[in-house]
């Protein structure tokens, strides 16, 4: 695992139920890819191969729009280590879980 990505998709929609449904479609897509991920209150973290994660990032915004959002803003953080491995989700967060 040479990459971790945090992505926050923000569908611009007035109806909160439709907004949540659009985000749910993005998360459903992430789940379907088979990558390791963790959903947080503000963003979802994914880990895996750089090229695979970049393809997922590209598709998430389109999937959210296809779910009914007339406009989508996406914020992405990328941690890439071409030689070796990045710290995983559990290495970063397990000690804080209760």
TrEMBL record:
<dbReference type="InterPro" id="IPR002767">
    <property type="entry name" value="Thiamine_BP"/>
</dbReference>
<dbReference type="Pfam" id="PF01910">
    <property type="entry name" value="Thiamine_BP"/>
</dbReference>
<comment type="similarity">
    <text>Belongs to the UPF0045 family.</text>
</comment>
<protein>
    <recommendedName>
        <fullName>Thiamine-binding protein domain-containing protein</fullName>
    </recommendedName>
</protein>
<dbReference type="GO" id="GO:0005829">
    <property type="term" value="C:cytosol"/>
</dbReference>
<feature type="domain" description="Thiamine-binding protein">
    <location>
        <begin position="5"/>
        <end position="97"/>
    </location>
</feature>
<dbReference type="InterPro" id="IPR029756">
    <property type="entry name" value="MTH1187/YkoF-like"/>
</dbReference>
<dbReference type="InterPro" id="IPR051614">
    <property type="entry name" value="UPF0045_domain"/>
</dbReference>
């Amino acid at each position: 695992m040479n990459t971790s990505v945090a992505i926050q998709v923000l569908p611009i929609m007035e109806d909160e139920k439709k907004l949540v449904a659009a985000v749910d479609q993005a998360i459903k897509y992430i789940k379907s890819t088979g990558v390791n991920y963790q959903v947080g209150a503000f963003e979802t973290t994914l880990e895996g191969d750089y090229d695979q994660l970049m393809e997922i990032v590209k598709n998430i915004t389109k999937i959210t729009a296809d779910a009914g959002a007339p406009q989508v803003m996406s914020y992405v953080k990328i941690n890439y280590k071409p030689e070796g491995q990045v710290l995983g989700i559990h290495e970063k967060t397990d000690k804080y879980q209760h």
